[in-house]
Each structure stands twice: as structure tokens, then as C-alpha cells.
């Protein structure tokens, strides 16, 4: 029987608060520091390691976190989730994104369907469709091959798939896996769709309309934009569009689309990169085998995350260290810093994943909680960030915990030696240097040049960013966010906070406003 | 005589802390709310207004902020800055970015040169060069016109110019001002340069190397990357590259460049968009007249910011409200939310501008301060952000102050009517709705659907995003950050916090490491 309890009712949380805090600068110095870096390390899968040496933890803190994991029943709750319990209580839904990439537990049957079979069948349908597009069996009306795929979607239908596409675009080009260029239209700002449409050859483009409900305002509006453009080019829109939606949506059986691929209510938008939402665009762009590799990487980490031993479970440990930093040490935000230009939009995806999942003030029963929950998440790739906001991270008045990501090898393989090192070596040298600079600091009599250190970070180190390691990275953070939601006792799978804005926007458009809203509407010429 | 005093030594700050806090939800409701929206509004220039109705201020708070502005001598310090005082005390430098766009005070003579004349002369040299490129008078060795310009730079040489380029790209295309496509190479990750080089026609590309010192590691490395690519294409690099640098840098007189344009030590990287750093790439991309318009917009706001009346000075008011939110109300971060896809990278620029300027723990004399300074800054364009992190902004446990930006008209002019409204109307309806949703909230018996409100925001409303309004927006935030630095008594114009990482990275590359740094280097295969 699962106990869903608030964090501040757990005895282990009270114990955790009493553990003496760790002085990061001290423990990371000298040979002790070297030992920590060697030991505070957990393999996530082949070619990917989570290292938490520079976090403010020691044996005592880790022991307390292990107790918290146990008392909060994190693994049991995860088991319950992947075995098909109604974990999304607010919306009374199962939470099944892990099932898109593997079967961790029992068969999950919902709505009379084995859900693993359902997700696999959609992957197979997408693979078949993508293969036919690539082979020139599915073409435009003139019998010519499609060269570009455009995803129309917003939020989870945009950020995750876009970040994954950008992460693999260069890898695919180098590895002969690049099939079609992908573009993305998301914003209701008409200039977004117009600019993308101006940049492509619509006659050879296939559009993916992604909306679970089939009612997302931005997405339907942008669909019309695209249909207009196709009509103006004398093209039959229904030969250029496919839909990714739920089987019950109005888009599912419409003749407006060449094909429709299905997701369901058990996969939240921000968790949908491994569903048909990411599957269609990534399979078209890179081929179904690349998407399958991506899923395999995610599945491996989903499995790693089932380990009850905290020190062998990087997802659970990362989650608990985050809770410790947020609730005990009192740090309000976290930066995600991938040293990889290919991960340029990965922080934007994690921003949604984390902040939309755990930015909640009520527990899963709708009762207000008396502690802070999800932090602000932000980030940019290194080394760019070093020349931007790192000043504040090093010397600002607030401490911001850091999540680095680095790879030994780059994707494209072109490099240049300057001052006896390659660019890739410089990139890696910088991330190593930053971790130690943040942790240890450096005393200087000139206080303006003084670095206090004590600024905690962890790093995920990979051999190379590939479909498999990308899938693993994605699953790492999905599972981390899930575990944190369990600790905070919030429902990480709904998003009631986005509703009020929608309601008021409709009122503005219907000119049914008064008070401040009416004046703002006037000022904005609506 | 200027008094440079810490915030917590000012009597007016103590008074400010005693003023009764404003209940945003209450004051923004009903007809009172409507009146506030009408009244709490200041013109920044023609076609641009700063509205702060939804901020947690009232007559009493505003009066206290006005006293603080006076006691902290904000206008006097600004005057001192633009008249050429050594405001950047740590580096013993003048701070002259405003002088690139206008003369607000006395002639400023430094190093024997009238600096306004110097900046104007560089603008003229750039204009002449750009006009010749556009006219086909300066061409590649084959006598063919250049079609692409690539900026090689990082930090301030990248983020600002890139954000400005993206902000005006579509506007320029529609208004017949688009001369050349611009691309940017910044990261030392070799995949950044390789991907950009793979995406362009190097034979028709002109590269701008931007480095004030001429020694920035990333930029010099990427220059070599580009030179390799040019050599491989059988091209003479010196016919394809120009430099933007200081007159004393090794790049200034090198034969490696077709031309060199100059900046100086009195313009910090993050304040350099209106100098030659932004000027070269924007003049080449859009023509010198567009860049001149951009400067004119910035100059207008620089002038507005000289107004001693707080209620007629949006830059100073925005700054003081930010300080009130940070130091009195205790909010640790701020989100920048432009409802304009063209401003997609504007938040990333502001992130550098703000966090690198005011993320400091010591005052301008190098003494530790006992209060918090610059906040974490993050943001994405709306409506995209609504489907991402707004959940936390609406219902998270921390309050995040918000800075909206919205325009009545889009740039491209294409639009589509769905459900009786255009996309532009939907975009504007959403920003209006969000302000009121954040401010007023909405009570619901289901606590999960309850919105407490009281989440403060301001909005800058413009007619359209044009070169002029973009310049104004840039200057608004530059001046805001400057005023906040004055209030916090920090030096907003140095960045000592970036140095330690550089030193350690060099040590890693020289294999002169021990302890933790050595182990990280090994783990990363350096």
C-alpha cells in the first residue's frame, strides 16, 4: 500500500535537515577531492555516467537521502506508475510515457487495449509511413519526393521534438542518416508561420499537425496558415499533411490528412518526445532506426531508475539532491549547462519538463503544501554561457545549483588544433575547469577577484551525443522530475495553471471584458 | 559630489521597507484596476509605452522609490557616466556605450580623442564598407557579390547582435531592406563552426571576426576553423574577413583582414550592440540606414532616462521596481516574456546584460555587500512560454516578477482569420489575458484549479517591432541595468567572475592539474 504523504510529514526529512551541511570547497580540495570525483560516480548506461562529486553531499547526507527515498516510497511509486496505476490523480489518468520505449512491469491494459502493443503499433505505422516517404512511394501530387518535414505544434509538441531534432541533425548528416530537413511552427504570432513558410519549398514539404485534443488554438491557427500557403501554391493540402493526435480527436478520422498517428491521454505533452509526437518527425527526419535507437537509450535509463539502491540510481539520486538543495539549502533555481552546441534547445525542453511538472503549490490531493516545490530552470550551452550569465553563477549573491553535461567526442568530426589542443579538448577543458572553479573558488585579497566557491554542480559525461545517449539523457530528466514530484507529493502530470490564461484570452477575443482586462485589450488594439 | 553608498546605508531604503505592501490582486480588480492600467503608464518614445499597472506599487511605494532614486543620486550618476567619469572603477574605464548613439552631455575626450567623433567615424567607415559590398564594389576574388555575412564572436559579440539580427530579419525582408543573410559562430564546440560552414556558400561569404582584445580563445579558434574552410575551398581568407576590434589589438593592423573597424575599452561586450560590434553585421545585413534608425531609437530612450521625475522615466522606474521586488519583496528571479517570435533570442541577450552586470557580491569599492543583488533572468517568447513554464509562474511556490513585451502589429503582414480573429489579435489577447490572470488570479474551491494571483508584471507595448523600437527596447534595458547597479552600488561594467574558469581551463590544456581537476580532465579524455 502506497503512502502519499507530504514531504514535511516525513521523519526522514526532519533527520535530513539536521545533518551537518557539507562544505563543497573543502571536500573538493586536494587528494580528498580527487577521490570524491572517482567515487561519486554512477553509470547510467554504456557510455554515460552521472558524477555528483561537486554536490553538497557526503556519506551522512547520502544516508539521509536514502532514508528519505525509502520513506517516500519512491521506487514503489515508480513501480506503481509503470504498472498502470492512476498516478495523474487530478485528471484521473495513467502515466505511461515509459511504455513507449519498453515494458518495465506488468502488461498495462486500458480502454480495452494493451498499451505497450498500442504504442508499438503506432511506431510501426510511423516507420512504415516514413520508409515509404523516403523511398518515394508516398510523394506529392506531382509524384516528387518530399524533402522537408514541418512540425506544427506548441509546448510539448514543439520543445522536446525540436530539441531532439537539433541534437541529432549533425550526427545524422555525418552518419548518413539524414533523410529530410525538419522545421517547426509553434507560436500563434503570425510571423512564426510566415517566416517558416517563406524559408521552405512547400511543394516538397510534408506537415505534421500535432495536437492531442485536436483543439489547441495555436496549432489549429497555424494549420490554417499552412493550408492557405498550400492553396496559394495550387496544392492539395490533404496530400501534404499528417496528424498526430488522440484517436478520439476530431483530427483522427479526417480526410484532411494523408495519415493520422495516435498518442493518448496517458502521455503528457512534455513527456511525449518518445511517443508519436516525437516519433513522426524524428522518423521522417532521420529514419525509423534512429528513432528506435533513441527509444532504446531511454529504455535503458528507465530500467536503471528502478534500482532501489540510491547509489546505483542516478535519476533518483539527482532528484533527491535537487530536493535537498531546494528545501534544505534553500536554492531557488537550477541551471542546465550542456557543453554541446547540439543541445542548444535541450535546456528549453527541460524548462518545460521540470517547471510545468513540479511548479505546483498543492499536493496530489489538492491541499496546499507548506514547502517550496519545483525550482526555476534555465540554461544555455557552454562555452557560450561562460561569456554570458556565469558571472552571476560565480560571484552573485544567490547560489544556483548547476547541471553540466559533456561529451568526450564531438559529432561532426571536423576539428582544428590551435595552441596544441583541439576545439573539442578546449570545450572539455572548460567544463572541467568550471566545475572546480565553482566548487573550490579561489581566495584573492582583492575581493572583486575573490571566488568563494561552494557552488555545487553535477555532470553527466558521455562518449558522444548519439540517438541512444540522447534518449538516455531525456529519460534521466523525465525520471528525475517524476521522483521529485513523488517527494514533494505533487501531481507532476497535470497543468491546471495554464487554464486561466486561456479562459481570459477567449474572453478578450469575444470582447467580453471589463476592468483592467478591457483597458489592456484597448491598449493592444484588440 | 557623488555619494557612492551601499543600499542598506540609505535612509530611504529603510523607509521603503516600512511601506505597506500592495495587494496586486486587490488593486487590479474592478474599476480601480481599469484606472490603474490607464494611469500607470509612461511613454518611452513615439510608439512605445511602459505600463506598470500590474506591479506591486501604489502612490506610497512610488513616493518611497522616488526618494530612493534621489538619495542614491541615480540621475546624477547617469550624468556623470555620460559626461565621461571613470564609472567602471575596477578596470578604471569610462562607460560610453550611450555615446555610440548620441551626445547627452559634454564632449568626452579620452586618449586624446573626442569619443563621440570616434564612434561616428567608425559608423561612417562601416557604412561606406557595407554600401560598397552591397553595390558590388567590394567582392570576392572572382568579382562576385557577397551574399552572406558570418559573425564570429562570443558573449557580447554574439548574443546582442544575434538577437538584434533575428529581431529585424523579417521586418527587413518585408520592407525591402534585406541585403545579406547573417549567420553566427560562437561556441568553441567544433560542431558549431562546422555546422554553420556546412550551411553556407563560403565563396560568397564575408566573415566578421569580433574580439575587443583580439585574444578571445573561442573566437580565435573559430577564426582558424573558418580559415581552414576557406583554404580548402581554394580561397584567400584575407579577401573574406574583416575584424571588429580595439585599435591596440593584434588584429587592428593585420593584413589578414580586408578591413578593421574599431571599438574601445569604454564599451563593455554586453553593451556593444550599438557599437561596431553590432554595427558591422547589422549594416551588412540590412544596410547602414537601418542601423542608423536602430541607434536613433536607442538615443531617444537614453534621453528619456535622463528625466529626474521618476514617473516620467520608465528606465529608472523599471529599475527601482526591480530592486523593490528583489530586496524588499524577496523575489529571486525575473522572467522576460516578449510576445513576438522575432524577439526569440532577446531574453538570452538580457540574461547576459543583466546577470553579468549585476551578479556581484561586492560593491564598487570591492567590499562585500549584505543584501542580494542581480536576479536570475530567463525567458522565452509568448505564446510558446504559456505552454511551457507558465505553470510554475501561475501556481508555483515562488513568485517570479514578469516583464512582458507586446506589439499591436506583426512584422510580416501575412495573417489569417480563424474564429473571427487574426493570429496577431490572438497573440495580443493572450498577453492581455496573462497579465490579468497573474495579477488577479481566480478563486476556485478545487485548490488545484485555484489561482491566488498577486503575481506582478509590467508590459512594454509598441506599435510594431522596427529598427527604431528595437533600439529603444535595447536602451531601456541597458539603462535599467545601469540604474540598478547604481542602487546596489556595484560596478555593472566589469566581470571578474569569468576569470577563474579561464585560468583553470588553460591549466587543464597544459596538463598542469592535480586533485579533482586532474580526475575530471581524465574523465573527459583531455
TrEMBL record, chains A, B:
Gene Ontology CC annotations of this record: cytosol
Catalytic activity as recorded in UniProt: alpha-D-glucose 6-phosphate = beta-D-fructose 6-phosphate
Enzyme Commission identifier(s): 5.3.1.9
Keyword Cytoplasm listed: yes
Leader sequence segment: none
UniProt keywords, alphabetically: Cytoplasm, Gluconeogenesis, Glycolysis, Isomerase
Matches recorded under CDD domains: SIS_PGI_1, SIS_PGI_2
GO molecular function: carbohydrate derivative binding; glucose-6-phosphate isomerase activity; monosaccharide binding
Pathway: Carbohydrate biosynthesis; gluconeogenesis; Carbohydrate degradation; glycolysis; D-glyceraldehyde 3-phosphate and glycerone phosphate from D-glucose: step 2/4
Domain of life: Bacteria
Family: Belongs to the GPI family.
Protein name: Glucose-6-phosphate isomerase
Amino acid at each position: 500500500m502506497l503512502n502519499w504523504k507530504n514531504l514535511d510529514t516525513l521523519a526522514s526529512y526532519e533527520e535530513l535537515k539536521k545533518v551537518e551541511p557539507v562544505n563543497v570547497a573543502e571536500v573538493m580540495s586536494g587528494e580528498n577531492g580527487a577521490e570524491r570525483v572517482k567515487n561519486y560516480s554512477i553509470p547510467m548506461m554504456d557510455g554515460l555516467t552521472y558524477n555528483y562529486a561537486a554536490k553538497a553531499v557526503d556519506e551522512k547526507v547520502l544516508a539521509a537521502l536514502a532514508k528519505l527515498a525509502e520513506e517516500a516510497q519512491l521506487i514503489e511509486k515508480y513501480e506503481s506508475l509503470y504498472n498502470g496505476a492512476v498516478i495523474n490523480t487530478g485528471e484521473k489518468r495513467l502515466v505511461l510515457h515509459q511504455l513507449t520505449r519498453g515494458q518495465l512491469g506488468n502488461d498495462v491494459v486500458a480502454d480495452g487495449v494493451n498499451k505497450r502493443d498500442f504504442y508499438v503499433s503506432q511506431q510501426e505505422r510511423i516507420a512504415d509511413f516514413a520508409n515509404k516517404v523516403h523511398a518515394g512511394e508516398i510523394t506529392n501530387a506531382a509524384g516528387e519526393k518530399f524533402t522537408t518535414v514541418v512540425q506544427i505544434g506548441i509546448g510539448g509538441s514543439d520543445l522536446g521534438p525540436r530539441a531532439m531534432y537539433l541534437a541529432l541533425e549533425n550526427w545524422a548528416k555525418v552518419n548518413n542518416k539524414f533523410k529530410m530537413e525538419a522545421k517547426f511552427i509553434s507560436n500563434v504570432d503570425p510571423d512564426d508561420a510566415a517566416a517558416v513558410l517563406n524559408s521552405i519549398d512547400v511543394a516538397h514539404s510534408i506537415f505534421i499537425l500535432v495536437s492531442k485534443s485536436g483543439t489547441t488554438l495555436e496549432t489549429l491557427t497555424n494549420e490554417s496558415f499552412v493550408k492557405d500557403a498550400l492553396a496559394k501554391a495550387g496544392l492539395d493540402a490533404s496530400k501534404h499533411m499528417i496528424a498526430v493526435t488522440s484517436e478520439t480527436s476530431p483530427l483522427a478520422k479526417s480526410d484532411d490528412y494523408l495519415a493520422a498517428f495516435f498518442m493518448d491521454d496517458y502521455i503528457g505533452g512534455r513527456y511525449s518526445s518518445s511517443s508519436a509526437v516525437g516519433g513522426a518527425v524524428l522518423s521522417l527526419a532521420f529514419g525509423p532506426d534512429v528513432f528506435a535507437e533513441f527509444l532504446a537509450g531511454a529504455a535503458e535509463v528507465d530500467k536503471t531508475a528502478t534500482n532501489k539502491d540510491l547509489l546505483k540510481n542516478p535519476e533518483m539520486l539527482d532528484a533527491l539532491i535537487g530536493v535537498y538543495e531546494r528545501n534544505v539549502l534553500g536554492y531557488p533555481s537550477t541551471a542546465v549547462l550542456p557543453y554541446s552546441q547540439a543541445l542548444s534547445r535541450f535546456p528549453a525542453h527541460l524548462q518545460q519538463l521540470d517547471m510545468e511538472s513540479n511548479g505546483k503549490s498543492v499536493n496530489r490531493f489538492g491541499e496546499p503544501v507548506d514547502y517550496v516545490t519545483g525550482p526555476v530552470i534555465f540554461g544555455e550551452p557552454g562555452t557560450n554561457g561562460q561569456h554570458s550569465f556565469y558571472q552571476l553563477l560565480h560571484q552573485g549573491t544567490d547560489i544556483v545549483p548547476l547541471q553540466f553535461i559533456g561529451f568526450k567526442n564531438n559529432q561532426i568530426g571536423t576539428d582544428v588544433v590551435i595552441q596544441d589542443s583541439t576545439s573539442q579538448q578546449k570545450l572539455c577543458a572548460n567544463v572541467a575547469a568550471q566545475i572546480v572553479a565553482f566548487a573550490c573558488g579561489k581566495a584573492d585579497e582583492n575581493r572583486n577577484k575573490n571566488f568563494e566557491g561552494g557552488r555545487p554542480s553535477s555532470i553527466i559525461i558521455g562518449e558522444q551525443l548519439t540517438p541512444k545517449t540522447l534518449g538516455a539523457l531525456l529519460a534521466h530528466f523525465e525520471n528525475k522530475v517524476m521522483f521529485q514530484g513523488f517527494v514533494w507529493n505533487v501531481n507532476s502530470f497535470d497543468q491546471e495553471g495554464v487554464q486561466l490564461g486561456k479562459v481570459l484570452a477567449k474572453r478578450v477575443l469575444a470582447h467580453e471584458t471589463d476592468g483592467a482586462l478591457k483597458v489592456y485589450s484597448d491598449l493592444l488594439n484588440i
